[in-house]
Amino acid sequence: MSTASNTINSFENIPSIKAKTLRINLNPNIYGTFAEIGAGQETARQFFRAGGASGTIAKAMSAYDKSFSDAIYGTEEDGRYVTQSRLKKMLAHEMRLVEERISRENNPDYLFFSFANTVATIDFSKRYKGHGWIGIRFQLDPKQKEYDEIVLHIRFKQTEARLQQETLGTLGVNLIYGAFFKYHKPKKLLKYLYDHIDSDTIEIDMINFTGPNFKEVDNRLMSLQLIRNDMTDAVMFGPDGHNLLPASVLYKKNILALRGSFRPVTKVNLDMFQKSYDIFVREPTVEYENTIVIFEITLSNLKASGEIDEQDFMDRAELLCSLGHSVMISKFQEYYKLVEYFNNYTKSKIGLTMGVNNLVDIFDEKYYRHLSGGILEAFGKLFFKDLKVYLYPMKDAATGQVMTSNNIKVHPRMKELYKFFKYNSKVMDIIDYDPDIMHIFSRDVLKRITNGEEGWEEMLPEGIAEMIKDKQLFTRKQPFPKKEEV
Predict the structure, then answer these.
(1) Pair (102, 185) in one structural domain
(2) Of 123, 322, 150, which Cα lies nearest the Cα of 238?
(3) Gene3D superfamilies per the record (predicted)?
């Protein structure tokens, strides 16, 4: 058991912020630095006020002036200061100084840490409420060579700088306390970040755990916790499984989004993506180099079978990541909310790839009864910007007729509204689709997999069936037979 664990296990959970800081200050081994930029030294202040900080705080600093900050941490290529890159440089620099200046020979039991944040609070015009990056690099054992690290991004919802600063200080204490005393329970650590903080005052929209003590932590699953805990409305992760900051990824980008269950991802899903992408990048206002494709799953879709099945979520994520795609999980059941979210970060072109059934649902009034302006309000938000729907056809199982934008059936009251958007080229048919795969639906493939039936492999993209079998995805009851057993 590590030095930290020996000390940690002798305590019970103590809820107050002062008790948390005292527990850290009175621990003779926890020792490190605070570097806070942009919102005062709010976290360090909590430790100073609690008392006993001389044995914990090696240094507390704020390099507010940009030139001074650059001289200490180096310059950023994009010239910005409230970035993950800046935070990482701060953590690395401060930890390096601790290692250089504190003798291990004289302090063999010290658990080093560096805590940092770089924050922009609300501006004078109150147009931008502010955001920030917060992180801690730390040891749980003095012999630990590779450090553990927790990095997160926040958005302020309060409209007064003083309140934002106080919230930041509380959050910082919760993070440091969680790093040393709740590291073995990362899901709980995530929840405890909101101790003594009202959930409507701050949003956490990204978090990543790295290091030897977090090897078993899948950051995609931590993304899911952010959504489940109502800490944010949408999260993203990349092909490598690391969580991404949506604002950073989407900023000023042309966005093509494909919504689905991807349970599992099928040949139809990839055909929808590839064919719509080919059209999208040929649009006059779209720059190929500045375009991002997002495979999006709604939280309600993840709850399709009742409660969220984390393993089922991970199975879907595993397959999408293996195909090299970025994935978004959102709470936006209606498409107009998704588009509104995108519009927070880009004014460039947005494309939505969808099937006929999805488009018919968009024109169903029942989804907009909660809006004072009804479906017209929703469509104003959905289509008023540079948005286009790329429609993948569907074959009617009963008649064999191929349904496109020209012959879909919307409610009689919606016909004229639909004609308006169709006439204004807001809906474009994908015409070079593959007719041989139109019979494939994820739900049918999943049923075959779970029932142990044959013939589903050819319905999936290359390599996906093998991955499902090798990793036993979507079924934990009966393993697939080995090749030599077939």
Answers:
(1) yes
(2) 322
(3) HUPs
If you average pLDDT over residues 48-68, what whole number do you get? 90
Query: What's the gap between Cα 219 and its chain centre?
Result: 9
Supply 270's token pair: 């990839």
pLDDT of residue 9: 43
| Angle separating helix axes 464-471 and 310-322, nearest 10 degrees | 140
Asked which of 408, 429, 450 is the last residue of a domain, the reply is 429
Q: Which two tokens stand for residue 282?
A: 């040929």
Contact of 91 with 138, CB cutoff 8 Å? no
Question: Is 166 in contact with 158 (CB distance < 8 Å)?
Answer: no
| pTM for the model | 0.88
Domain boundary among 429, 453, 468: 429
pLDDT tens per residue across span 337-377: 999 999 999 999 999 999 999 999 999 888 898 999 999 89
What is the C-alpha separation between 256 and 428, in angstroms, rounded?
A: 14
Domain contains 463:
no
* Cα(331)–Cα(353) distance, integer angstroms: 18
In a domain, 160, yes or no: yes
Rounded to whole angstroms, the Cα distance separating 132 from 154 reads: 5
- Find the domain containing 70 and state its range: 17-217
Residue pLDDT, tens place only, 234-289: 999 999 888 999 999 999 999 999 999 999 999 999 999 999 999 999 999 999 89
List the strands of the sheet with 427-429, edge to edge: 243-244, 234-237, 326-330, 291-298, 254-259, 350-355, 387-392, 427-429
Strands 243-244 vs 234-237: parallel, antiparallel or unpaired: antiparallel
Same domain for 64 and 180? yes
- Residue 236 CA to residue 227 CA, distance in Å, equals 11
